[in-house]
């Protein structure tokens, strides 16, 4: 049972407690659901999958406690009698308090075969100028033209297939075939076409303004297509977990099979 703000055992400064409680619940509930339905990866026992809740969330909560404690000291600690400080420093709010940088990089159920990070990042502060990597919060992208189907949901994983150019359509089809092997209702597939792409497949959205490609892929040329020197040329499959974090980034059907969908239990390494 997650009581969030009703069970604070830390400083409420920064307003991080309620959001942290909701993140805890979202991180755990999809894992409980997979175990309850018997859908976790067959190579992973249910206890091992459940342990990843602790592995992913404890480091985030530790960082949150450090941030809120330091903020409390800046606010009250400098003045006699515990009166709040009126100086500007006590009210400085950094990027980390927005919680957009919270990530699970290094988690045993996260797979990034395209551009894995060289080292595990501070769990609370992803650099804004970095490309999205496995374990990061899936960024919002505006300007998506919905062609058919439904949008994201917290009751299933979502596979984003970045189709790239028209020449890669057959490869995109193979990726979709690989993704449809998973149990009904567990995976939703969203094909994202580049701004100048041709929506000839069963495409879900078109990235009319290029924000999705700019967020999820490293480089774009002026037309909005992946640049020739990009490390992330399409097609690329990004699987967004039910809790809104990137669980898998792969670039071929074999990669989809290898991950066994780590977001499903989600690893053949465990």
Question: Which key features would you list for this structure?
Answer:
270 residues, alpha/beta, FAD/NAD(P)-binding domain, Glutaredoxin, 2 domains, 5 helices, globular
Describe this structure in words.
The protein is an alpha/beta fold and 270 residues long. It folds into 2 domains: 4-98, 3-Layer(bba) Sandwich (FAD/NAD(P)-binding domain), CATH 3.50.50; 111-264, Glutaredoxin. It has helices at residues 17-37, 46-77, 169-179, 211-216, 253-259, and strands at residues 111-112, 144-146, 157-162, 187-193, 205-207, 236-240, 246-250. It has a 7-stranded mixed β-sheet.
Poorly predicted regions:
199-203, 220-226, 228-232, 261-270
* End-to-end CA span: 27 Å
The CATH class name of the largest domain reads: Alpha Beta
Counting H and I runs of at least 4 residues, what is the number of helices? Answer: 5
Spatially, the strands of the biggest sheet line up as: 1-7-6-3-4-5-2
**Main sheet: strands, sense, barrel:** 7 strands, mixed
Approximate helicity band: 25-40%
What is the fold-level CATH name, i.e. the topology of the largest domain? Answer: Glutaredoxin
Can you say what the CATH homologous superfamily of the largest domain is? Answer: Glutaredoxin
